[in-house]
Write a structure and sequence with these properties.
With 152 residues, the protein is mostly beta strands. Helix content is 11%, strand content 47%. It is built from 2 helices and 12 strands; from the N terminus they run βββββαβαββββββ. The strands form 3 sheets. Strands 3-2-6-9-10-5-4 form a 7-stranded antiparallel sheet. Strands 1-11-12 form a 3-stranded antiparallel sheet, with no helix packed on it. A two-stranded antiparallel ribbon has the order 7-8. The two termini are 21 Å apart. The model has no long low-confidence stretch (mean pLDDT 91). Keywords: Oxidoreductase.
């Protein structure tokens, strides 16, 4: 699977106290345009899984190449996150956290799920979409490395 180049997203939701929680994910794709839906896969051994199950809403933030530090940071378990990257959130519709500066943001209601192995595949119906700076390049992941195709 490492030979499949993919974009990098950060999934956002709320924890039980209403604080934004984030997780890097590259298991993301479009499902259909009418209605606009997408899917993400979340491992059962992550804190994110429990929060998504409880909230039934997610934000999907497509990262710009300048956000590699955030991609790395949110790829770690919360107790293993080191450093203090500069980031902030804006609350979207239904209190779904939007990671400020993302290339694209999708605010989704979970409308379906399928448990397979150690992951749940969530289908999200897009309720809100925002596009950031039109000149941004996407952050990519390829061959187990962060990849910047615009500079290769």
């Amino acid at each position: 699977m490492s030979k499949f180049a993919t974009g990098v997203t950060v999934i956002t939701t709320l924890d039980p106290s209403g604080t934004p929680h984030s997780m890097t994910a590259n298991a993301f794709t479009s499902v259909c345009l009418d209605p606009p839906t997408l899917l993400v896969c979340v491992a059962h051994n992550t804190i994110t899984y429990g929060y998504v199950e409880a909230q039934q809403r997610i934000g999907v933030n497509v990262l710009r190449e300048e956000q590699e530090e955030l991609g790395r940071y949110f790829a770690r378990r919360p107790e293993q996150r080191e450093g203090n990257p500069d980031y902030s959130y804006t609350m979207g519709t239904h209190n779904v956290p939007e990671l400020d500066g993302s290339m694209v943001f999708f605010n989704c209601d979970i409308v379906g799920s399928h448990v397979y192995g150690d992951h749940t595949i969530y289908v999200g119906e897009v309720q809100e979409m925002k596009s950031g700076d039109g000149d941004a390049n996407p952050l990519m992941f390829y061959d187990s490395h962060w990849y910047h195709p615009a500079h290769e």
